[in-house]
Specification:
It is a single chain. The protein has 317 residues and is an alpha+beta fold. 41% of the residues lie in helices and 13% in strands. It contains ten helices and ten strands. The chain has helices spanning 9-20, 54-70, 111-126, 129-134, 145-161, 175-180, 224-234, 236-245, 250-272, 284-294, and strands at residues 28-30, 39-42, 46-50, 81-88, 91-97, 102-103, 190-192, 201-203, 209-212, 219-221. The protein has a five-stranded antiparallel sheet, sandwiched between helices. A three-stranded antiparallel sheet has the order 6-8-9. It has a two-stranded antiparallel ribbon with strand order 7-10. Helix 7 crosses helix 8, helix 8 (236-245) runs antiparallel to helix 9 and helix 9 runs antiparallel to helix 10 (284-294). The longest helix has 23 residues, at 250-272.
């Protein structure tokens, strides 16, 4: 197999000029220290993403089709590709218009921003599953809450020893609740973004959510995964309020909190042990912030709110 060339500032400039003309901005720089040479800012108005291998190229082609599919269903901005093609044999690129605003890690989401997130969750649910499957969006099976609970218990003990976490808080993660909060048999999958982290939420200085980036990992599956991602990025209360506004019931909201809280314990413990979470390791301060936000208390945090007959299947009301 021929090794792909390593992108450089000069090669990126040449590609950009071939797309935008010789008068195009030549200020190109890697988008972030952890982004590697695959993502570049191009001036102040564009971002260039280069697929580093053939698997990433397949995912990027699917992402371009998915963005067009979801755009009519969402009120927030979805990135628009100004140009796309191959930057090396079999390896794709997309030159996207930059979505104005900061990241969710820079700005807090306001009450109106929570309404934006609710509209996002509603729009994702409205995307036709069959059309998403036609363009290659995969299905993702719901994760086992019991397996995750066991991993989180171990991680919580290590974090308690490192004075990073109060072990008494884990008493909420009971074995009995895992069965009650599981996905109901026959529940229909929805389109899940699977990456609503702070860096993928474009938030204005007013706290409104302006856009959503990073559609590469989207899948058809459990909407609690997106609720969990929001709990990690904007906090559990805001995530639950947004999901409730979107019509989700107690079960998917509480399951999302479980996923978020267990994930943040495991990710921080792994990072402290020198095993950063894949595929995108985050700095320790970011992991600590996610842990704090995921474990913020909420009024909904009572499994008894689920009806005794278990008929709350989390479907929109």
């Amino acid at each position: 197999m021929t090794q792909a060339p390593t992108p450089t500032a000069d090669s990126v400039r040449r590609l950009v000029r071939s797309l935008l003309g010789e008068s195009a901005e030549t200020d190109v720089r890697p988008a972030a220290a952890g982004a590697g040479p695959a993502t570049w800012w191009v001036g102040t108005r564009h971002v260039l993403r280069l697929a580093p291998d053939r698997e990433a190229a397949l995912r990027q082609r699917r992402e371009l089709r998915l963005r067009e599919l979801v755009r009519p269903h969402l009120s927030v901005t979805v990135p628009t590709s100004v140009a796309h093609g191959e930057w090396a044999p079999g390896l794709t690129y997309t030159l996207d218009a930059k979505v104005p605003g900061g990241s969710g890690e820079e700005h807090d989401v306001s009450a109106l921003g929570e309404a934006d997130l609710a509209a996002l969750l509603t729009g994702l649910r409205e995307v036709p599953v069959r059309q998403a499957e036609t363009i290659g969006v995969p299905r993702a099976a719901p994760r086992s809450l019991e397996a995750l609970r066991e991993s989180a218990e171990r991680a919580g003990r290590h974090l308690a020893e490192a004075d990073e976490f109060d072990p008494a808080r884990q008493e909420r993660l009971t074995r009995a609740a895992t069965a009650q909060l599981g996905v109901q048999p026959g529940a229909a999958p929805v389109l899940v973004h699977h990456g609503l982290a702070g860096e993928h939420l474009v938030v204005g200085a007013d706290g409104r959510v302006r856009g959503v980036l990073g559609w590469t990992d989207a899948a058809l599956g459990d909407p609690a995964e997106d609720i969990a991602a929001l709990a990690r990025s904007v906090g559990s209360p805001a995530a639950v309020r947004a999901a409730t506004l979107a019509g989700y019931g107690a079960r998917p909201c509480l399951r999302g909190l479980w996923l978020a809280r267990c994930d943040t314990l495991v990710h921080l413990a792994d990072a402290l042990a020198g095993r950063p979470p894949a595929p995108a390791p985050a700095p320790l301060p970011v992991l600590r912030t996610r842990l704090r936000r995921a474990w913020e208390p909420i009024l909904l945090e009572r499994v008894t709110e689920l009806r005794e007959d278990g008929t709350d299947d989390g479907a929109p009301t």
